[in-house]
Amino acid sequence: MKRKRALITGITGQDGSYLSEFLLTKGYEVHGVVRRSSSFNTARIDALYRDPHDPEARLFLHYGDLADGTGLRRVLELAAPDEVYNLGAQSHVRVSFDQPEYTADIVATGVLRLLEALRDSMRVSGRTVRVYQAGSSEMFGAAAPPQHEGTRFHPRSPYAVAKVAAHGYATNYREAYGMFVANGILFNHESPRRGETFVTRKITRAAARIKLGLQRRLFLGNLEARRDWGFAGDYVEAMWAMLQQPEPDDYVVATGVSHSVREFLAATFACLDLDPAEHVEVDPKYFRPAEVDHLLGDGRKAREKLEWSPKVDFQALVQMMVSYDLELARQERTLLDAGHRLAEAAHGHD
Ligand code: NAP
Ligand code: F7E
């Protein structure tokens, strides 16, 4: 049987790495769009990569950018995918207030570029391609919890507004051209691979470093915001399931349980037998011009239609992230101590 081919934008990100792993284990040939950068940005997928000359290689990377429609067309031609997962984004909500135009260009117009490229590519090749669009619970913003597929969007940041536009483009291409475009509306999902400036990872990383004497204080913003936090490794399976359905649709993916940032902090510090009161300070710098107070997903549709449910709960997620960051901190401590010993030895020879 012919191998299925998937193209992932944002393959170097948290979700892109878990999705690549998942699709490779399902037997897919995986192609990824990678942005050119002055230093390597592929750490999360390095373990999956093999030299393309290796006959066993099934992961292929292509330079591209959601800002560059011509490049996207070329990548589509080379990869000839059956499924496209559009995960690429400037995904940081706070940063979107500092870089609103750029965020809109990548998060909203980038989707339009990709859909236009796909529309033309399907017409020319006669092939059908299924598309996953990475929507976000941030689109619900100020809407009262619990939020479901029918809840009215009330975005609170340039990032969220751009995701609403992207959602609209995806729906429009489905209706206007009959394209198979599924909108995933994913609530926050975290992991040891989460970017270090998102609040969960910022907390687990800092707590582990405090435990090993590598840092003393942690500065945070609004501790009362509540989020429905799940595990990224679980959520990418829902993305795939959306593209295996007979018809494209919109799906909320969530755990159905929310916690405050303060509770995440307490759970993390408790794992390490630390007291947040001794180390944590609030810095207004991390407050947002408009906050999203409470996200809590009603994921019944995904449970029923996709037969998807999360496997990792809140406490297991915290423990997983803490264990990983503790190991990183141990390595940092070891290097630091070795450096000190070398310096002392060199000093002794003076
Ligand atoms: P992430 O870790 O920030 O990864 C974002 C990815 O997009 C990275 O590979 C990044 O490349 C790439 N990217 C950034 N700008 C790009 C551009 N101009 N052109 C092409 N690629 C670009 O995000 P994530 O957590 O994996 O999230 C994946 C997707 O789901 C995003 O669209 C995000 O907005 C959405 N989402 C995430 C969550 C969540 O809780 N994680 C929830 C709902 C929706 P570099 O590595 O080069 O920076
Ligand atoms: O903030 C509060 C902050 O940046 C969560 C992205 O993946 O999920 C993510 O967006 C909450 C907010 O995630 C700090 O004010 C307090 O209320 O971890 P975050 P996010 O904004 O929810 C959605 C679903 C996405 O789609 C996005 O791509 O935590 N908070 N103190 C802080 N947040 C940060 N980053 N840093 C702090 O010091």
**In the CATH hierarchy, what is the superfamily of the domain at 5-194 and 228-257 and 290-313?**
NAD(P)-binding Rossmann-like Domain
Principal-axes geometry comes out as globular
Overall CATH architecture of the domain at 5-194 and 228-257 and 290-313: 3-Layer(aba) Sandwich
- Strands ordered across the widest β-sheet: 3-2-1-4-5-6-11
Quickly count the helices. Answer: 10
Stretches where pLDDT is under 50 for at least 5 consecutive residues are: none
Distance between the first and last residues' Cα: 70 Å
Structural class: alpha/beta
User: Which sheet architecture does the biggest sheet show?
Assistant: 7 strands, parallel
Please give the share of residues in helix: 40-55%
The Rg value, from CA coordinates, equals 21 Å
* Ligands bound, unique: NADP nicotinamide-adenine-dinucleotide phosphate, ligand F7E
Question: What is the element layout, followed by pairings?
Answer:
Blueprint: E1 5-9, H1 14-25, E2 29-34, E3 59-63, H2 69-79, E4 83-86, H3 93-98, H4 100-125, E5 130-136, H5 158-177, E6 180-186, E7 189-190, H6 199-211, E8 218-220, E9 226-227, E10 230-231, H7 232-242, E11 250-253, E12 259-260, H8 261-271, E13 280-282, H9 300-306, H10 314-348
Bound molecules: NADP nicotinamide-adenine-dinucleotide phosphate (NAP) and ligand F7E.
